[in-house]
Amino acid sequence: MKGSDVTIKGVFKSFGDFKVLNNVSLDICKGEFFSLLGPSGCGKTTLLRILAGFESPDIGVVAFDGKDVLSLPPNRRPANTVFQNYALFPHLSVFENVAFPLRLKKKPRAEIETVVKDYLKLVQLEGHSAKKPNQLSGGQKQRVAIARALINEPSVLLLDEPLSALDAKLRQHMLIELDQIHDKIGITFIYVTHDQTEALSVSDRIAVMNFGDVLQVGTPYEIYESPATDFVAKFIGETNLFDGTVSVVEKLDKPDINGDTEYLVELNIPELGEVKVTTIDAVTVGQTVSFTVRPEKIVINTEKPVIKREDINLFQGLVDEPIYSGFQTKFYVKVRDNWLIRVIKQHSKYSDEGPDIVWKDSVYLSWSATDGYIVEVKK
């Protein structure tokens, strides 16, 4: 496996009285596509700049393959950075922009010619070597920046929101290309983004950050399906989030698929009533917890479904607003006390030409106890 292991331990950083990073510790594996995800101002770019050597932490350790690199300047670290604004030299051709790091090292002309051509081929810009940056599209400029960062053969590539300046379709296309480049060269990628869709699409693992803290580290599946905090649940995709009080806890006979003891819990949620949810966390009667269920987990019907299982939740409501998006319809449904629940219905059949549920329809919402999730216990 190429690339470097990256260790971040106990990193703090403040600018004046403003604390940007608060005791951040992460272990990033060699060859991993790792994303730092969070809203603007959460500290993710500052952390990336510390890894690159453009900022220094107040205290903490940053190591590549076990070697502390904090004393090294950016040009002596085994890492290169792709910036949000590309940082290309406007007076140089595509070829010369990519060749620049090799010319600084005084590599032989023949070697530069061969290596630059290889990297232009890697980023699919073979026919654009003579162009200047102002003759390129945004996506092409980004490819040049990636090729220039990779030509030094770093063990870690740092990417600071590299696709944010592109339009939505081009951003999705470039994201696929970036993932393919990672698969080809196999080094460690550390990717900063505020876009949860980007992070879920390409990452091996994700660190979700907010206000300088790392709230959760996990695979895209773990982050989406098992959020560790209310913030993670709301920030990653759409969800319905409620506070409730534990009223019943029943230990189930069979463990879950991982062999963990599982409990069927009943929650009293003021906006809904009684809700059933399974959990592997030991909660007790009387505790206040936050509960989430994703909109796509909820089944919506105009007729009352026949319930044959004890672990199914069923509620009646009124469609307040249907939003048709072609491949799906999102419903905002008013339930008890006029509380809105979001429901997403996928259009998976050719004959399903549009929503058969319309505004003001009386509907039934149902989901399994296994499709909900207790996010955290309130203190």
Task: Outline the secondary-structure elements.
Layout: E1 6-15, E2 18-28, E3 33-37, H1 44-52, E4 59-64, E5 67-68, E6 79-82, H2 94-104, H3 109-122, H4 138-150, E7 156-160, H5 168-185, E8 188-193, H6 196-202, E9 205-210, E10 213-218, H7 220-225, H8 230-235, E11 240-251, E12 263-269, E13 273-279, E14 288-293, E15 299-301, E16 312-324, E17 328-335, E18 339-346, E19 362-368, E20 372-377
Parallel strand pairs: 3-8, 3-9, 6-7, 7-8
Antiparallel strand pairs: 1-2, 1-4, 4-5, 9-10, 11-12, 11-14, 12-13, 14-20, 15-19, 16-17, 16-19, 17-18
Provide structural commentary:
- The chain folds into 2 domains: 6-234, P-loop containing nucleotide triphosphate hydrolases (Rossmann fold, 3-Layer(aba) Sandwich); 238-377, OB fold (Dihydrolipoamide Acetyltransferase, E2P) (Beta Barrel), CATH 2.40.50.
- It has a 6-stranded mixed β-sheet, with helices on both faces. The protein has a 5-stranded antiparallel β-sheet with strand order 13-12-11-14-20.
- The protein is α+β, with helices and mostly antiparallel strands and 379 residues long.
- The chain starts with 5 loop residues before the first strand and ends with a strand.
- The longest helix is centred in the middle third of the chain and has 18 residues, at 168-185.
- Helices cover 22% and strands 36% of the residues.
Key features of this structure:
single chain, about 20% helix, OB fold (Dihydrolipoamide Acetyltransferase, E2P), Rossmann fold, 2 domains, five-stranded antiparallel beta sheet, alpha+beta, about 375 residues
